[in-house]
Design brief:
The complex is a heterodimer of chains A (284) and B (264). In chain A, 77% of the residues lie in helices and 0% in strands. Chain A is an all-alpha fold. Chain A has a domain at 88-283: MetI-like fold. Chain B folds into 2 domains: 6-77 and 158-263, Rossmann fold (3-Layer(aba) Sandwich), CATH 3.40.50; 88-155, no CATH class. Chain B contains 9 helices and 10 strands. In chain B, a hairpin with a 2-residue loop joins β4 (61-66) and β5. In chain B, α2 (93-105) crosses α3. The mean pLDDT of chain B is 90. The chains are: A mainly alpha (284), B alpha/beta (264). Bound molecules: adenosine-5'-triphosphate and magnesium ion.
Chain lengths: 284, 264
């Protein structure tokens, strides 16, 4: 939860008042001052990297070489020469589609199962041990099994995402449901709010911050798993792109792809966090 | 004035089969419209007693009657203002009150009537200007006021206050005490209030119930505060009747029933 507190560093929360030019200028200046440490750090890292790798014997390319090798890749993310010869943007898009579907399924099933385990003592005793064992299985270990079951790469990859992301969602939802503060429960009892009304008005909102924590962990794990899964199942996708670049010894492309993977993962995390803020109305 | 409005008869409670009773044979009759304060050292069982009246806890033996009906579950006729306000943080102040009003009067009042009733109660505690704020955006005293508005909006027969001003600074506390006194005078609701503050007890209540130390705590003494209302805190500071009542409570708490932790 620690980085929830330091969220919105670059002015995500826009002021409600109309902006005068002077205020805009001041805001811009403040944004630059805030980003300055980051910019300096990036320059330092790139500089050090350049100095360290700018030798003929170096095994990894320097930033200048990456730029020279992979300029096309960086500038044209959406080119499409048919087949698997596509821009990084299109590969990422294919991966994102898989993650979106797998993650959506795991969010639905995970919240439903979490609610069940959190509210029913019997379900908890029956299912929780199973969940605790299954969640330790590494994502890729599910891949052969799902390939055997689905006989197709696409649903197998989606299943791997699903099964990777579902555990934190289940567990966090169940914890959230079980930990509705007794204060809230007492309020509900005094006003005789029970059953479905209690579920919607007390239980779900009270568990929502936990649920979104689970979803955030889940989306992060999905993105970790998709790259690995795509390396194995092939087809259009960022994982396969990296694997393909490795096979053609194109290290510069790999590095560019890694940076894109990182940025997209970051954006996904922030999106789920933002969704959580909006849904829980700022209490997450 | 019916004598048998709220009657607590021989209430005992223990939390584990082999543990001693936390409360033993607590007996108290409260009349309609009466303001009763409960005072006693920390851990003696004040909150436990209040929760039994609220129906949130079940007593082991004995029982509570409200207007002749046995109390066996919580309900809006015994609204509670909790010690830590217990507002739902995802709702605005108005929505917190509205949740209770919709739930309690969902069938009896129209939508517009309910909305007006919510605002009327917010206005009663002077919180209408802050109705759209979340509990996280207002001060502790304001939260407590919303808690009081929520409780009053249920039109309870008995208002149960668990150290409602305990966590507040002296100025806010005095201000809220005045508001509660005014509301009590206006609505004539029966009030049962827990407090640690002797002055507060004397200033607000008709009777002060002093509890002995636990375990097996019970009512040690009851002091009638025969001071005219409205009571003015400034004038009372020198009033001999006020000082006598205050001394009586102090004597009970610090001479005859000293805090077990300090006495040891
Ligand atoms: N659910 C419970 N299970 C076991 N023991 C409990 C429970 N609730 C209260 N007790 C015990 O009952 C006693 C009285 O508790 P209670 O909260 O009523 O005290 P109190 O007078 O309200 O104290 P304070 O002034 O500090 O709020 C304490 O010794 C406490 O440990
Ligand atoms: Mg207490």
């Amino acid at each position: 939860m620690s980085d929830l507190a330091q969220a919105a560093p670059l002015g995500l929360r826009l002021p409600r008042v109309a902006l005068r030019p002077a205020a805009l200028g001041a805001m811009l200046r403040r944004a630059i001052v805030r980003a300055l440490p980051l910019i300096i750090m990036l320059v330092l890292i790139l500089g050090a990297w350049q100095i360290a790798a700018d030798r003929p014997t170096a095994s990894l390319p320097a930033p200048s070489k990456i730029w020279a090798d992979s300029k096309d890749l960086i500038i044209h993310p959406f080119y499409d020469h048919g087949g698997l010869d596509k821009g990084l943007g299109l590969h990422l898009f294919a991966s994102l589609q898989r993650v979106a579907l797998g993650f959506l399924l795991s969010a639905i099933a995970g919240i439903a199962l979490g609610l069940l385990v959190g509210t029913s003592e019997i379900a908890m005793r029956g299912l929780d041990p199973i969940f605790q064992v299954l969640r330790t299985v590494p994502p890729l270990a599910w891949l052969p099994l799902s390939l055997a079951a689905f006989r197709d790469a696409q649903p197998s990859a989606i299943f791997v995402i699903f099964i990777t992301a579902i555990w934190p969602v289940i567990i966090n939802t169940a914890v959230g449901v079980r930990n509705v503060p007794s204060d809230y429960r007492n309020v509900a009892r005094v006003i005789r709010l029970r059953g479905i009304g209690y579920f919607w008005k007390i239980l779900l909102p009270s568990a929502a911050p936990f649920i979104f924590t689970g979803l955030r962990i889940g989306i992060g794990l999905s993105w970790l798993a998709i790259v690995a899964a795509e390396m194995l199942v092939g087809g259009v996708g960022i994982g396969f792109f990296i694997w393909d670049a490795w096979n053609s010894s194109n290290i510069s492309d790999i590095i560019v792809a890694l940076i894109y993977v990182g940025l997209v993962g970051y954006v996904l995390d922030r999106l789920v966090m933002l969704a959580g803020r909006i849904v829980t109305r700022g209490t997450a | 004035m019916s004598i048998r409005h709220l009657s607590i008869s021989d209430v005992s409670i223990r939390f584990a089969p082999n543990a001693p009773d936390v409360l033993q044979k607590v007996r108290l009759e409260i009349a309609q419209g009466e303001y009763v304060a409960i005072i006693g050292h920390s851990g003696c069982g004040k909150s436990t007693l209040l929760n039994i009246v609220a129906g949130l806890l079940k007593c082991t033996t004995g029982g509570v009657l409200l207007d002749g009906t046995e109390v066996d579950e919580p309900g809006p006729d015994r609204a509670v203002v909790f010690q830590n306000h217990s507002l739902l943080p995802w709702l605005t102040c108005r929505e917190n009150v509205r949740l209770a009003v919709d739930q309690v009067f969902g069938r009896k009042k129209s939508r517009a009537e309910r909305a007006a009733w919510v605002d009327e109660n917010l206005d009663l505690v002077r919180m209408l200007p802050h109705a759209e704020k979340k509990p996280g955006e207002i001060s502790g005293g304001m939260k407590q006021r919303i808690g009081i508005a929520r409780a009053l909006a249920m039109q309870p027969k008995v208002l149960l206050l668990d150290e409602p001003f305990g966590a507040l600074d002296a100025l806010t506390r005095a201000h809220l005490q005045d508001q509660v006194t005014e509301i009590h005078a206006r609505l004539g609701t029966t009030v049962l209030m827990i407090t640690h503050d002797v002055d507060e007890a004397v200033l607000l209540s008709d009777r002060i119930v002093m509890m002995t130390n636990g375990p097996e705590a019970t009512i040690g003494e009851i002091l009638h505060v025969d001071l005219p209302r409205p009571r003015d805190r400034l004038a009372f500071a020198q009033d001999p009747r006020f000082l006598a009542a205050r001394a009586g409570v102090m004597e009970f708490l610090y001479a005859r029933h000293r805090n077990p932790a300090e006495a040891a």
